[in-house]
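hiii, so i know i said id send this last week but things got crazy w the move. better late than never?? heres the sequnce for the chain we talked about at the cafe, plus the structure i predicted for it. fair warning i was half asleep when i ran it
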Amino acid sequence: MSNIVVHKNSSRGHANHGWLNSFHTFSFANYYNAERMHFGALRVLNDDTVDEGMGFGTHPHENMEIISIPLEGDLEHKDSMGNLAVIKHGDIQVLSAGTGIYHSEYNRNTDRKVKFLQIWVFPNKKNVTPRYDQITLNLDDRHNKLQQILSPNAEDEGVWIHQNAWFHLGAFDKGNSTTYKIKGDGNGVYAFVLKGEITINNQSLEARDGFGIWDIAELSITADTESEILLMEVPMSF
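okay and structure toks below
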């Protein structure tokens, strides 16, 4: 029998710093909820909006897989490995912090906000050599289907991380359905609705709702309206 958890949009933690408006699905910074520490290896899911010309100053990370998914605008990344890059909607960025890294992230535009998802996943290997990567995806490859954007394997589609995890993005027209088969033994899936209304395994979800499910073999997904969704398959034990 499957196990589920539903996190409604309105139940998320919230911090408005003026230049940064951030919603936290899981405990983060000053938001603490003992029942919302993580979903398996998925530790952080932040839904961030950064004002024009503002950003996160240089700060450290270690032993975490950090994934950024831009939704609107242009986000500039700079790190202690010498990387200077800009990511925008359609790009995926990954940072394996490993033994330690410093980085900063800024909205490089002065005329519009930047919106992005900041996701942290616990790694299955500690103290690895830090690594940065980013790719640009074909948005057509997620129309009415699931596009793989992340996996454990460098040779597969999308970026890769040090964890037995797979991420997919889908953009569905109203009435379209698909299935998703669990890839890793002992894995669960956390779904985050980016847009519209969608039903997963008979659970109705709206924009910015989160839905975690485990002890299952596959998911059934139906778009009740024009919808966009992010699926994050992660180990439940790690």
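btw The CA atoms of residues 193 and 221 lie 12 Å apart. thought thatd interest u
miss u guys!!
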